Amino acid sequence: MDEVNKVIQNISDRKDIEKKYLQNNPSNRPMSVFYLDAVVDIPKIISSAQSSMWKALRTDPVFTFPFNETQEILSHYSVTKINSIILHIDIVGSTKLSMTLPIERISKIIQAFTQEMTKIIRLYGGYVLKYIGDAIIGFFTVDTDNLYLPCINAINCAKTMIKVINQGFNPVLSQYDYPEMGVRIGIDYGENVVVKYLPDSENPDSYEDSGGGGSSSSSQPKEKHLENKKEIKQPIYDILGYTISIATKMTAYAKIDHIIVGQLIYDILSKEEQSYFTMVDTSPENWNYISDETGTIYRLYINRT
Predict the structure, then answer these.
(1) Residues of the chain with pLDDT > 70: what percent?
(2) Is position 145 within any domain?
């Protein structure tokens, strides 16, 4: 670990970190197993987020999503179980925004939000799984030999997200007299499964003409038509599991601009780090998830400040 820390100590760009790291670590352990907050330039991220929001409201910027990168990572775990940390973040007050602003404005604000949150997730060694309206689900792959650091990275990722919202986005929104944005973040750890979905091009029957005679609707021969389809279609990978369900539902218990973590995350932290959180008072009527380890209600913990 000391050698790794020396390698990444003075490098602020994540791509440079990865390049340098991989040259010296042929085992290719995931970046999330190293403490990344020390090399993340938070003031730079906040400044970038401000510029992104200004640009979004003044022009028609192009937003991107690292879909290929996520799919490449998941393809290595296809149809297998994977231990991962799930981070779920959603915007509080998006309904108020939608009632106040034109839909074109709302879409730009949401896109700027998802773009910048995606960057932060990547900087902390995670990946974006999907966007769901005004929410994002990210995941961090886990080296079972070192679960502590991925948990710390995920929590620090969440802290940085909140700073960017408050110090980056909201000052810009205030300049326009728009309602300020708030977020809630849920983080949990557990076992999930990576599932593979095949596109229709993998199913020859889906390209048969529904009319009589069984002839292809394309002017090309059926075999050539299918071949062309297969050339442009790729499998789609997704993550399913208990952890995603819990991380998503626990977020509803978080206050605005707060982080809520599951018991498995909390138990990994040091005593000092645990003091940052306090247990959430949940009722069995609203929260009835049972811990596999204790056989009792799965506990939730929210940050104190």
Answers:
(1) 78
(2) yes
